[in-house]
């Protein structure tokens, strides 16, 4: 089964802890080949300089967004990669509509853009903590759908990943940060407060994914309790997406046909 079919979010998604676990074990040799193929296609995208690819990574704290970025793109030409991490909006950003800061960071022609967190934060944490009303949340779903459709119609291929971990796995990863002094910089006490709202966040994620899952901007739910399985699953979806773009090298330059370098 193709990864884009295996992991595509289902209608009326309900996130369950048991679905964060993977049955199969990753194949490192196969994954290395997938990453090599992604690197080759990324070079072709960069050379073509016509289309763009936007990757959205979402997930609860410790779900592995940073690790996924490091693993997927360690061998990619950084000139063709634009990664953006979205945190709490600045005063200037908050004075604009919620998509203003997002639109500034979308990839340009030839680039792969990676959003580590994204515009979806504005229908997740804002909903869970009551910063927006249910009516406003629904309006934002519609605005996100329109925004992503506009990107797709102007040459951006969009692929969105939810890295799905269980509550028990999050506990273990948070505890590992506490137990290792070298990882204390990663630990934020606020994560414990957000963890108390686990069910609310799972509902907010499932609703947001269901409301914005479209053929031109599909969501993929990746079992992420296993880091290696997570990396392989994301890589397979990404490779199939790049292949589906039917990339090609730019046409040869006729001026170089008989050129001899002396």
Automatic annotation (TrEMBL):
Keywords: Kinase, Transferase. Gene3D superfamilies: P-loop containing nucleotide triphosphate hydrolases. This is Polyphosphate kinase 2 family protein. GO terms for biological process: polyphosphate metabolic process. The lineage of its organism: Bacteria, Pseudomonadati, Pseudomonadota, Betaproteobacteria, Burkholderiales. It comes from the Bacteria. Residues 25-245 form the Polyphosphate kinase-2-related domain. InterPro entries: P-loop_NTPase, Polyphosphate_phosphotransfera, PPK2-rel_1, PPK2-related. GO terms for molecular function: polyphosphate kinase activity. Pfam families: PPK2. Belongs to the polyphosphate kinase 2 (PPK2) family. Class I subfamily. It comes from Massilia eburnea. PANTHER family: POLYPHOSPHATE:AMP PHOSPHOTRANSFERASE (PTHR34383:SF3), POLYPHOSPHATE:AMP PHOSPHOTRANSFERASE-RELATED (PTHR34383).
């Amino acid at each position: 089964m193709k990864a884009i079919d295996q992991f595509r979010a289902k209608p009326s998604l309900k996130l369950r802890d048991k679905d964060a676990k993977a049955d199969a074990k990753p194949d490192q040799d196969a994954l290395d080949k997938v990453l090599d193929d992604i690197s080759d296609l990324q070079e072709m995208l960069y050379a073509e300089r016509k289309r763009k690819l936007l990757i959205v990574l979402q997930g609860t704290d410790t779900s592995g967004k940073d690790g996924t970025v490091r693993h997927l793109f360690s061998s990619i030409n950084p000139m063709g990669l634009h990664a953006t991490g979205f945190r709490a909006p600045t005063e200037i950003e908050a004075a604009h509509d919620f998509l203003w800061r997002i639109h500034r960071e979308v990839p340009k022609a030839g680039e792969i853009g990676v959003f580590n967190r994204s515009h979806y934060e504005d229908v997740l944490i804002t909903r869970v903590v009551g910063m927006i009303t249910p009516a406003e949340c629904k309006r934002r779903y519609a605005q996100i759908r329109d925004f992503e459709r506009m990107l797709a119609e102007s040459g951006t291929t969009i692929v969105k990943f939810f890295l799905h971990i269980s509550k028990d796995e999050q506990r273990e990863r948070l505890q590992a940060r506490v137990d290792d002094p070298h990882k204390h910089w990663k630990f934020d006490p606020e994560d414990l407060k957000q963890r108390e709202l686990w069910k609310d966040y799972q509902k907010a994620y499932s609703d947001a994914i269901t409301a914005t899952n479209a053929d031109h901007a599909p969501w993929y739910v990746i079992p992420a309790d296993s880091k290696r399985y997570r990396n392989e699953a994301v890589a397979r979806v990404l490779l199939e997406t790049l292949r589906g773009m039917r990339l090609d090298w730019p046409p040869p330059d006729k001026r170089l046909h008989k050129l001899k370098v002396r």
